[in-house]
Amino acid sequence: MSDTSATGRQTIDSLVGEARGIRGDARAAGRILPLLDLTSLGGSESEADIDRLCRKAVAHAVAAVCIHDRHLPQARGLLAGSDVALATVIAFPDGGDDILKAADDSAAAVADGADEIDVVAPLDAALSGDIELAGELVESCRAAVGPDVRIKLILETGRLADGALITAVARSAVMAGVDFLKTSTGKIPVGATLEAAALLLAVIQEAEGRVGLKLSGGVRTTDDAAAYLHLVDRVMGEEWVTRDRLRFGASGLLDDLLARR
Fold this sequence. Notes:
The chain is α/β, with parallel strands linked by helices. It has a domain of about 180 residues: TIM Barrel, CATH 3.20.20.70. Helix content is about 50%, strand content about 15%.
């Protein structure tokens, strides 16, 4: 991990401005591809759609496939023998406050083959001032799925909006042992932003880099992803960037990455 003085020397605004000018190249595309969570959460996917998605994921050695839980048994079979992880979403997309249901749904998903759980934060509670429920959600899900399942908390930063609130919810999740902080469901107009990513990276720095970051919501092109990769490199250092610490969640990014390599 890079010297955290990078954020002391420069403001978040200057780091974001620097990243905004980045354009993707073949090297960036090659680095981003193995960090991809190839995603299909439209809701109307057929068995044939899931088959194509999983075969593409294996062929291009992406990090994970992220799908609705009803498709998990099919996908588990298709991904067997590969290094591609299987992820699903919980409390999606609105993020209810029933943490016991989220925990039960997480346990059921793992029983159906999920390796990773992307759970939406209790957004209404957070917006009403109950920050700690996010941490309680993470703890409940952890108790339900055990230590080996990766838990990503979706903060829906475009809805939380306020920087202090985003930071507080992220800290609550980190203190509860979350594995990744994730920007967005991709289901609202404001998805990932460089500003929100910088806020989450600051919290990850506080945790000495032990927590990962997943960028999702509007990351559609190699140029989009390269800007975030540059920001992460500047804050955390290139050596920090592995599939265990950085992911890009997207449905349409793969084809652009392949074209740019």
